[in-house]
Task: inverse folding
């Protein structure tokens, strides 16, 4: 019963773009995966996405992209977790009785040798920390809404964990 009400989010991650799509209602957030963070001992997120670039131009903040690294997609776990948490909340909206979503994370790109087990686990843990009741990591072609809702690997390649 609860699974029928549970929101399902499909999250595509790349160094240039973070897309969060609610596959049940079609809501979609597309944003640059950057955060403006105050400098100093007590770091605080000032802005996210395009607003982060604006904040970085006018304030003493660090502009951070947790998905931009030459060897791996997830370069800063804690910052990536905070960014994902913020975008998941935006995608779900505000509600007194929010049901934790199922999140399918789709890291984009093709690193030499594919994504490691450690990277896949990091993505799954980011999704859980962002509020997911359950999370899967998909590596392969872009999934359709029906494939995400089916919750299993479609034929034709790719890995579902």
Result:
């Amino acid at each position: 019963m609860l699974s029928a009400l549970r929101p399902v989010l499909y999250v595509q991650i790349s160094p240039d773009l973070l897309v969060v799509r609610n596959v049940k209602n079609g809501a979609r957030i597309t944003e640059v995966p950057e955060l403006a963070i105050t400098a100093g001992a007590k770091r605080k997120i000032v802005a996210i996405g395009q607003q982060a670039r604006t904040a970085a131009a006018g304030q003493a903040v660090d502009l951070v992209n947790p998905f931009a690294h030459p060897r791996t997609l997830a370069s800063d776990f804690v910052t990536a977790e905070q960014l994902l948490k913020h975008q998941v909340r935006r995608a779900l909206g505000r509600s007194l009785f929010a049901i934790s979503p199922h999140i399918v994370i789709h890291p984009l790109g093709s690193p030499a040798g594919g994504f490691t087990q450690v990277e896949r686990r990091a993505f799954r843990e980011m999704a859980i920390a962002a509020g997911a009741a359950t999370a899967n990591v998909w590596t392969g072609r872009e999934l359709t809404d029906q494939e995400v809702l089916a919750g299993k690997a479609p034929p034709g390649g790719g890995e579902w964990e």
The beta strands are 8-13, 18-22, 28-31, 35-38, 45-48, 61-64, 102-107, 134-139, 159-160. Helices lie at 2-5, 50-58, 77-92, 117-129, 145-150. The mean pLDDT is 86.
